[in-house]
Design brief:
By secondary structure, this protein is α/β, with parallel strands linked by helices. The chain folds into 2 domains: 12-65 and 177-288 and 425-488, 3-Layer(bba) Sandwich (FAD/NAD(P)-binding domain), CATH 3.50.50; 292-414, Flavocytochrome C3, Chain A, domain 1, CATH 3.90.700. It is built from 13 helices and 21 strands. Bound molecules: flavin-adenine dinucleotide.
Length: 492
């Protein structure tokens, strides 16, 4: 654990509180998708809820998300689009791709996925009954279902029967699905009678002499206020990618010129508040990293090579997986090699994967890229010979993307760390139970404290195993569980 995470804000006692400005059942810290779902869950349990949000309105990072929710097991969209799926196959897939899987949470998430889809729709979050067949980081239009992970990537396609599970909110464009989802969730929160205070920044938790969390201190307009929670406090305050110290100490493996994906609220406040009450942080070095090179899909038929001229990943992997593997290559150097039949330009200008050059021969490309003599020639010869047979013995790239790269001229794009740009956000968070209670290092629950979303450790755990939609999926699923459980607790 870093010095920073060992140095959380002070945990206050009742004697530090001269006057309670609010007295409620459940306090939710943070009005993103996890907080909204927690507030709704607590209202479903009949609890009074106070929502505190440091920004001037709802949204958080959820409000700038693309809008994928990772759901399966036979959702109405999967059924309408003719895809068979089951909770058991979804479980096998997520378990295989999660470094530290919690069987109970995974089971609940997979078995509850269809019901959760219906719950999201009941809150007004819209999903079309349509499928986007292309390979893209985000659907360009409002089509719903997409392959948003590594389902067809080896060995996962042999471990679990593949099914597309990325459900995009019905928004007409590549970005904006998260904002639309948040508009509907925020309206549902308002309609549910939740008291919301904006520009209110949670600063310290307050615990009784038994260590039970009974409220918090927040600041607003330069004033200090205290709110008492008869049942519980739910931390739903986002991640820590914007916390400079945590970025330096915990996420030192990430490119230093990273485009940090998030809002100012992702400063680690939720995590640190949880630690102050005894909560255990998990996976603080884990993060999502990306630098997608597709669409066009033809780019997936190219190969990625490192400074040794060797491949290092199945190129049809989800872009977060490829990016994670790329950072582990010598000096972070990698190129995407294409021939004239597969050539295209990576679509996102801000990732700056520059065209190095075009080359008439593989030998010229090898020396132009400064790769060891004979390395790229051998890699491509082996790849082409196997691809012509419809095979990829080294990396098992899916048959759809296997094509010999033998049509000169050739081209290479520079994907290297320090030259191309990468984007990412943190994935570590507080250890929590299946009901989202914050846990100590010994596994016991911190009474009166819950956490969900980007400040908790649940389904989305690392970039190699990431599937788009698991963050919003778990934030809303475990957020609602947190609220329901917290709201049904008897008053302290
Ligand atoms: C560009 C982008 C695209 C993404 N696309 C997807 C996607 O399509 N699918 C997916 O699953 N994931 C996606 N993600 C990740 C996903 O958006 C986040 O993991 C998720 O939104 C986290 O939700 P949350 O409710 O935990 O946090 P947030 O939505 O960030 O909400 C936390 C809230 O807490 C508030 N807060 C922070 N500190 C305090 C404090 N001390 N007191 C009071 N309030 C506080 C913040 O202001 C914020 O409003 C994307 C992320 C980015 C940046």
């Amino acid at each position: 654990m870093s010095a920073l995470s060992q140095n959380p804000p002070a945990l206050l006692t009742e004697s530090d509180v001269a006057h309670w400005d609010h007295d409620t059942d459940v306090i939710v810290v943070g009005f993103g998708s996890a907080g909204a779902s927690a507030a709704l869950g607590a209202r479903e349990s009949g609890a009074r809820v106070l929502m505190l949000e440091r920004a001037s309105g709802p949204g958080g990072t959820s409000g700038i998300a693309g809008g994928h929710f990772y759901l399966g097991g036979g959702t109405p969209v999967q059924e309408a689009c003719g895809f068979e799926d089951s909770a058991a196959e979804m479980y096998k897939y997520l378990e295989a791709l999660t470094p530290d899987p919690d069987p109970e949470k995974l089971r609940l998430y997979c078995e509850g996925s269809v019901a959760h889809f219906h719950w999201l729709e009941a809150q007004g979050v819209p999903f079309d009954r349509s499928y986007y067949p292309g390979k893209a980081a985000m659907q360009p239009g409002r089509d719903c279902l997409i392959w948003s992970g590594n389902e067809k990537v080896w060995p996962f396609r042999e471990i679990a029967k593949p099914a597309p599970r990325g459900h995009k909110v019905a928004f007409d464009g590549p970005d904006g699905g998260g904002a639309l989802a948040m508009q509907h969730l925020a309206r549902a929160v308002e309609n549910a009678g939740v008291e919301c205070v904006f520009d209110a920044r949670a600063a310290n938790l307050v615990a009784d002499t038994n260590g039970r969390v009974i409220g918090l201190r927040y600041t607003r307009d330069g004033q200090t206020k205290h709110a008492r929670a008869g049942s519980a406090v739910v931390l739903a305050a986002g991640g820590y990618i914007m916390n400079e110290q945590m970025f330096e100490q915990e996420l030192a493996w990430m490119p230093r010129d990273l485009i940090k994906h998030g809002t100012a609220g992702d400063d680690g406040a939720g995590l640190l508040l949880g630690i102050s009450a005894g909560g255990a942080p998990m996976g603080l070095h884990q993060a999502f990293l990306t630098s997608p090179v597709y669409p066009p899909e033809s780019m997936i038929k190219g190969i990625m090579v490192n400074a040794r001229g060797e491949r290092f990943v199945a190129e049809d992997s989800y872009h977060g997986r490829s990016a994670g593997m790329l950072t582990e290559q010598p000096d972070g150097i990698a190129y995407l090699v294409l021939d004239s039949a597969t050539f295209g330009y990576p679509p996102y200008e801000f990732f700056e994967q520059a065209l190095v050059d075009g080359y008439e021969t593989v030998e010229a490309m090898e020396s132009g890229l400064g790769l060891p003599h004979g390395s790229l020639v051998k890699t491509l010869a082996d790849y082409n010979a196997a691809a012509a047979r419809g095979e990829d013995p080294g990396f098992h790239k899916y048959a759809d993307w296997l094509q010999a790269l033998d049509q000169p001229p050739y081209a290479a794009f520079d994907l290297s760390v320090g030259r191309a740009k990468f984007a990412g956000f943190s994935l570590g968070g507080l250890s929590t139970s299946a009901d989202a209670e914050v846990r100590r290092g010994d596994g016991s629950a911190v009474p009166g404290l819950y956490a969900a979303g980007a400040c908790a450790w649940n389904i989305a755990q690392d970039t190699r195993g990431y599937s788009s939609g698991t963050c919003l999926g778990e934030a809303t699923f475990f957020g609602r569980r947190a609220g329901r459980h917290a709201g049904s607790k008897p008053q302290a």
